[in-house]
Amino acid sequence: MSKKKLNSLEDLGGFVFSTNTNFEFENEEQEETLVPKKQFLEAHFSNKGRGGKTVTVITGFVGSEDDLKSLGKLLKTKCGVGGSVKDNEIIIQGNYRDKIMEILKKEGYNIKRVGG
């Protein structure tokens, strides 16, 4: 890959550099978590970009990151496997799509099977 030459500060992608030691970032408002009946989640099966390992990916959650992490923890505990929460997605190790869909339906979520 060739390196791109920077011609101006805009080429840095909107970063602002400051020497002001009293500067405070404005915190973005936390998105309010919708109740489970109003959530529309999708259950994906994937193994691309993971060295051939299969995972179940849950997308479409609307709400705070803490609530997303607690839902991820619930799913990992009920399935007895590992996983993570990144980029507003819950990633569960293994092909547990059907089991996760049953768990989420019991919790009151609307979930749709996507792909294969």
Automatic annotation (TrEMBL):
Keyword flag Cell cycle: no
A biological process from GO: translation reinitiation
Coiled coil segments of this chain: none
An example molecular function term from Gene Ontology annotations: translation initiation factor activity
Residue intervals of the SUI1 domain: 48-108
This protein's record includes keyword Nucleus: no
Domain of life according to the entry: Bacteria
InterPro entries, per the entry: DENR/SUI1_TIF (IPR050318), SUI1 (IPR001950), SUI1_arc_bac (IPR005872), SUI1_dom_sf (IPR036877)
Sorted UniProt keywords: Initiation factor, Protein biosynthesis, Translation regulation
PANTHER family in alphabetical order: DENSITY-REGULATED PROTEIN (PTHR12789:SF0), DENSITY-REGULATED PROTEIN HOMOLOG (PTHR12789)
Family membership: Belongs to the SUI1 family.
Protein name: Translation initiation factor 1 (eIF-1/SUI1)
Lineage of producing organism: Bacteria, Pseudomonadati, Bacteroidota, Flavobacteriia, Flavobacteriales
